[in-house]
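To fix ideas, we quote verbatim a fold written out as tokens:
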Amino acid sequence: MLFEPFIQFFQDLFTSLHFTEQQALVLAESSIFVGLLILSVIIYYITWFIIKRTVIRLIDRSATKFDDILLHNKVVSRISYYVPSFIVSKFVPYTLPSFPEAILSVQKMVDVYAIFVTMLVISSLISSFYDYYISKDSSRNKPIKGLAQVLKLVAYIIGSLMILATLLDKNLGNIVIGLGTLSAVLMLVFKDPILGFVGGLQLSVNDMVRIGDWISMPKYNADGDVLEITLTTVKVQNFDKSITTIPTYALVSDSFINWRGMTEAGGRRIKRSVNLDMESVRFCDEHMLNKFRRFHLISQYVHEKETEIQQFNEENKLDTSTLVNGRRQTNLGVFRMYLTAYLKAFPGVHQELPVQVRQLQPSENGIPIEVYFFSQKLSWPDFENIQSDVFDHILAVLPEFGLRVFQHPSGANIEKGISMLNLDGNYPEQKE
């Protein structure tokens, strides 16, 4: 036997110290077993030293990225954990020859240790494949973090069952069958991971959400960019830099808005209206038309439109001395054409996407004139600046067309009206 001389030496030593023969045997073999454990740890460190000097140096010099990821996720270091278990499993029968039950117990613990190390290695490998996948540009379209988490969970569950079967000396199949009776409890415990896994698969297969997408989900107060899609949650960073977590399955069961189409189209929609006072709308007289002809953006339009209208009225022999007869341009119609030409000339407007100025249903708040266009720049500050610049111009240019913005009277308006009454000397009669 390999360790028999050492066992005999320690047995004689403990006998000389007045231990009984049985006690000396137990202490001798226990000492050899402890020595084996210490030796296995020493050999582990020697092995790791050799790996660092050879394998890791080769990995550092390699141009391949995947081996660096394996090293980062501790795959190499965790594989070296097998060294102590191999040594103990191989030589423990020689250190405890008189105690077969102790050998079986140690072998059982070594098997449990080996299963646990295997779980760690598999987890590291899954993490490595995931890290390598997300380093590719195509990973943004198909996030698989939820799948990676499911694989890890399955590995840990199977490993735990194997450890349980090893400790209880039971067949793994019998344990799985026994757990079948607890399926209802397991479904309740793992409800969120199961729903998350199903939801994650649907999100990935249907390409509903990608990392970096801007999504809006008012139910969860989420309005921002998707940071991470995991097994149970989706992390969204809102524009105020807060983080909202949404259950993965909620993106399948509830409705949300994904603004990816806007990003891919290259334009961000602006749809806003301004209300005009209906009393400021009127037919254009010659003075107004001459004024409009000097507006660079619509000078040609006004000239061509006026020629067309005159030709129509003459062909139909209409009496244009009365305003209701024939066709005439209005200041509102000319303003709509001016605004359309302005948007088509504005550098911040995406010209390949629809540009429209239209009149909405009049109401007690005036006539809404809606502008519909897309900004070339997608970032929030640029989008707001373009939108503000356009409406600054609209509000400033309206008086040039004889139009007024409709707004409810404020304190300043009422005060102005009272001041005008005072200047005119028109006071309402007061009853004594």
